[in-house]
Amino acid sequence: MSKKEMFNERYKTGKTPWELERPDSNLIEFVKKKSILPCKTLEIGCGTGSNAIWLAQKDFDVTGIDFSSLAIEKAKLKSKKEGVEIGFIVNNFFKQKENESDFELIFDRGCFHSFDEKKDRITFARNVSLHLKEGGQWFSIIGNADAGPRDIGPPMRSALDIVSAVEPYFEIVFLVSAMFDSNREKTARCWKCLMKKRKKGAK
């Protein structure tokens, strides 16, 4: 079973522990504490759209993408119910062809960390940079390996895993240890990482 088929099956059966059915508190804190103004925003791996809907309600111009067609269907229904306009698209961001874009902010919660191979994480970071305008920001919530091994929960990455993948394309504004927002009784540790796209020729 491919990852795409696996995720569609999980959304079909409702076995989606990563879905909060509400906006992520780490995203809310980031937007409010950093006084991020409404801008053109892309959420990668938007799932059923809770974060994208919250951003749209705060006047962000949001596009949400996910490779699960069932997740996107659910996201479209939720956004219609909430009365906000969001461009939800079925899209495999990792395999997307090169094309410059003009997003000012990109958000992902648990997409970057899903790649086990360093070369794939580098490709993901490069794709993010291609979708941002110069000086654009990427806020990523990533599983944290410092907490040690566990039986369940998100993939875990070290600070080195993150820095070595993103550094060619981004300046790291902050990389801090935190906790995932979760509906589980015992949540997992995460990294909150904010990156700024490097100027052309700066590296």
Describe this structure in words.
The protein is α/β, with parallel strands linked by helices and 203 residues long. The protein has a single domain (3-197), classed as Rossmann fold (3-Layer(aba) Sandwich). It contains six helices and seven strands. It has a seven-stranded mixed beta sheet, with helices on both faces. Helix 5 (118-131) crosses helix 6 (159-166). It is globular.
Detail the topology: elements first, then pairings.
Blueprint: H1 3-13, H2 25-33, E1 40-44, H3 50-57, E2 61-66, H4 69-82, E3 87-90, E4 103-109, H5 118-131, E5 132-143, H6 159-166, E6 170-179, E7 189-197
Parallel strand pairs: 1-2, 1-4, 2-3, 4-5
Antiparallel strand pairs: 5-7, 6-7
Helix pairs in contact: 5-6
Short description:
The protein is of the alpha/beta class. The chain has helices at 3-13, 25-33, 50-57, 69-82, 118-131, 159-166, and strands at 40-44, 61-66, 87-90, 103-109, 132-143, 170-179, 189-197.
Index terms:
Rossmann fold; 26% strand; alpha/beta; 203 residues; globular
- The CATH architecture comes to 3-Layer(aba) Sandwich
Rg value: 16 Å
State the helical fraction: 25-40%
Relative strand content: 25-35%
Strands, total number: 7
